[in-house]
Request: fold
Amino acid sequence: MANTFALILVTITLVTGVIWVLEKFIWSARRTTKAAEVLGLSAEELDQGQIDAVAPQPSWIETGASLFPVIGLVTVLRSFVYEPFQIPSGSMMPTLLVGDFILVEKFAYGIKDPVLRSTLVETGKPQRGDIAVFKYPEDPRIDFIKRIVGVPGDKVRYDEQKRLCIQRKGESTCELLPIDEVEESPFSQQGINLIQAKETLGEVPHEILVNPYIPNQSGRYAKTSGKNEWTVPMVSTS
Reply:
């Protein structure tokens, strides 16, 4: 759906842009010439009112030409600078709640083609602790928003107490992320009070929620079913 909207937006921008260029450099001059011939005046002697009376600007040209600057600006901002998203689920609670609107910085990991999403210019790499919006690998039509806990080559593990452990690429030991300020959360899930805590990744603490009664979910993970350890692969940021 997002790609369809981007394609529509780019198409409208191109169409209105062509209208704007033709109006500015060709059609407007033709109407001025026609008015000068009818009124027997030179182009320099004409005012806009006389031109409009003899050769009025068609409404579709006026609409297209006037829309182009606005649509063009929206396309540039949405494609290369910021794009709005609405949080669809509670996976990022309590940092982000269902229904929250956020603006995503589009150039953090590269300048991309707005339709095909291929990287044109690389500007950075995802880092641990970043909150990123990406296409769900099993269904690219769906946008996911998650916190990055591992970068390519890292091994990510969860123990039975739902503690996160990261073995960084090239290291032999797994670093258990510190958890502080553990307390009962005001949020609940299906009538169960959740546990709220601060999980420190690097030097940055992040608020997390844990359901202490939910069973191990490792069987739900695609391609690694039944495991609580994953090696972060080398992937494109497109």
Summary: The first strand starts at residue 82 and ends at 86. The mean pLDDT is 85. Residues 60 and 203 are 57 Å apart (CA to CA).
